[in-house]
User: Which sequence fits this backbone?
């Protein structure tokens, strides 16, 4: 057989074999797998796989129809024979049992993506026990399912859906192809995602056909070889993947740029090094000077604010004193009538009671004020006692309020009873404490030596501390304890206000007496109560101490010198 005859027979065999292929080869692919294959803005197939398939069809004289859809559906369509080939399928031993693969036209690297706050992992095995998002029917879906992790997978129709799901807060990690993943993160503006393991698997990727379709497989293999020989393959790859894959260093270009740019730049940097160091030293000295000046001005501004606020507080108390004087006068007038009239009513009742008793003895029981006389006979004295006690309490509260709000034009230094000041302050806040807690404990130590200073200003301190304690309570079942005592060793009087409230974080303890600092600003706190109280205690030669822990309540201790000790110190 001559060589020409053999060639003719081979050509005839090839022509006969090619005649077995359908007129139009239907090639499937993923609709959302950029830059490999995807539907463009016009709804038409685009991407590296698409251009490569069309180029192979062109050089092999085939007519192809490219259909892109959901990836799992495309795989099923090839297995069922509804399409003839897939233009891009990652190779695995399991898949090789169902499909035949042409030589790979690229290698796909897979990456693990996570939200920025999620801890990084470095391998596929490290994903075990975590919620992982994968592309349904993709290579990583097959791989993780085969490894026994299928129960923890969240499957989506496309890689884009997988990354969107992860960005929305569902799942912990997503495993998709690295290049499509980075493309989608940028294109979809998923700024909270990052690749934590950029290359966890490298997989051959190429055309695949149904098992046994040797002729179509040969066409794709031959066409790819032709494109690689002619350089057209490189141009297609460069267009779609060149800007996304790492490039090697061009050392010649680097050397030329170094000679032209870097060397003169280094010489200039060396020449300016001495001048730069001197300038840095001058800047550092000037910066330190300015920082000290700014700090001093800040301290002066804070001190001015504190003094202004104290003046404002003093003006408020002066206005309150004027108001209280007028209100007290209006309250005391009718209250005085009650105090005067109740004894007269009591005397009249004693006289009338004898007559009514005689009437009951003669006529039998009768109603008075809607109640039988036999019962009313014991109720009326109790009602009169309560009326008189209430009137006396009104008078005492008004007197305490007048004393508390009285303007103190000159600091008083006379001796005073600390227990009496505490009792007067507690009467002023009686209504608040009754609402805040059902457990107010007061323990005033007997026989305390007198303190020296202004009783009214110490009352203001006690009022502030008790109100703060009440505001710290989460419920009325929690208690507040107020106690006084005498420390003979230190020669100081002690006042403690302890609450079972929410406590104070350690980082806030040192700032409690700073003006305007408050942890209750949302509730209307101004941050002035403890600041003013600390100033009053310091004016009396005393000290204010805090002890607290979150959830364990707070104890405030006021130390005041006794009158004898204060006089000796003076």
Assistant:
């Amino acid at each position: 057989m001559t060589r020409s005859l053999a060639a003719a027979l081979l050509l005839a065999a090839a022509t006969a074999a090619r005649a077995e292929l359908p007129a139009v080869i239907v090639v499937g692919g993923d609709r959302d797998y950029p830059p490999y294959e995807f539907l463009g803005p016009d709804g038409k197939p685009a991407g590296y796989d698409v251009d490569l398939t069309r180029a192979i069809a062109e050089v092999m004289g085939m007519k192809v129809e490219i259909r892109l859809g959901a990836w799992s559906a495309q795989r099923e369509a090839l297995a069922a024979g509804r399409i003839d080939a897939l233009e891009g399928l990652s190779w695995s031993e399991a898949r090789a049992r169902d499909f035949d693969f042409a030589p790979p036209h690229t290698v796909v690297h897979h990456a693990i993506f996570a939200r920025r706050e999620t801890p990084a992992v470095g391998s596929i095995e490290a994903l075990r026990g975590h919620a992982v998002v994968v592309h349904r029917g993709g290579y990583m879906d097959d791989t993780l399912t085969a490894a026994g992790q299928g129960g923890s997978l969240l499957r989506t129709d496309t890689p884009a859906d997988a990354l969107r799901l992860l960005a929305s807060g569902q799942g912990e990690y997503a495993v998709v192809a690295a290049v499509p993943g980075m493309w989608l993160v940028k294109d979809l503006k998923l700024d909270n995602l990052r690749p934590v393991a950029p290359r966890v698997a490298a997989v051959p990727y190429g055309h695949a056909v149904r098992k046994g379709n040797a002729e179509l497989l040969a066409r794709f293999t031959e066409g790819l070889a032709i494109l690689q020989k002619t350089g057209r393959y490189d141009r297609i790859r460069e267009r779609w993947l060149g800007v996304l894959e790492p490039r090697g260093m061009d050392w010649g270009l680097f050397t030329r740029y170094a000679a032209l740019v870097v060397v003169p730049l280094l010489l200039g940097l060396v020449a300016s090094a001495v001048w730069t160091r001197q300038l840095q030293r001058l800047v550092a000295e000037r910066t330190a000077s300015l920082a000290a000046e700014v700090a001093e001005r800040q301290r002066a501004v804070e001190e001015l604010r504190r003094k202004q606020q104290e003046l404002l507080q003093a003006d408020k108390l002066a206005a309150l004193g004027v108001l209280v004087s007028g209100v007290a006068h209006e309250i005391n007038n009718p209250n005085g009538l009650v105090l005067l009239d109740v004894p007269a009513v009591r005397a009249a009742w004693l006289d009338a009671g004898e007559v009514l008793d005689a009437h009951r003895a003669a006529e039998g029981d009768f109603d008075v004020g809607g109640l039988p006389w036999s019962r009313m006979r014991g109720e009326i004295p109790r009602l009169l006692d309560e009326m008189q006690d209430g009137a006396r309490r009104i008078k005492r509260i008004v007197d305490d309020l007048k004393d508390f709000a009285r303007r103190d034009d000159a600091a008083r230094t006379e001796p005073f009873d600390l227990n009496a000041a505490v009792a007067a302050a507690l009467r002023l806040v009686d209504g608040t404490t009754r609402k805040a807690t059902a457990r107010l404990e007061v323990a005033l130590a007997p026989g305390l030596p007198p303190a020296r200073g202004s009783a009214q200003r110490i009352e203001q301190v006690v009022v502030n501390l008790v109100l703060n304690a009440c505001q710290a309570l989460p419920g009325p079942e929690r208690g507040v304890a107020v106690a006084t005592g005498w420390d003979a060793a230190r020669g100081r009087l002690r006042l403690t206000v302890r609450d079972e409230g929410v406590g104070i974080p350690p980082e806030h303890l040192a700032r409690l007496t700073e003006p305007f600092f408050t942890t209750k600003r949302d509730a209307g706190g101004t941050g002035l109560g403890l600041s003013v109280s600390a100033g009053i205690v310091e004016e009396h030669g005393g000290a204010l101490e805090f002890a607290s822990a979150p959830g364990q309540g707070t104890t405030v201790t006021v130390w005041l010198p006794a009158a004898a000790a204060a006089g000796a110190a003076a």
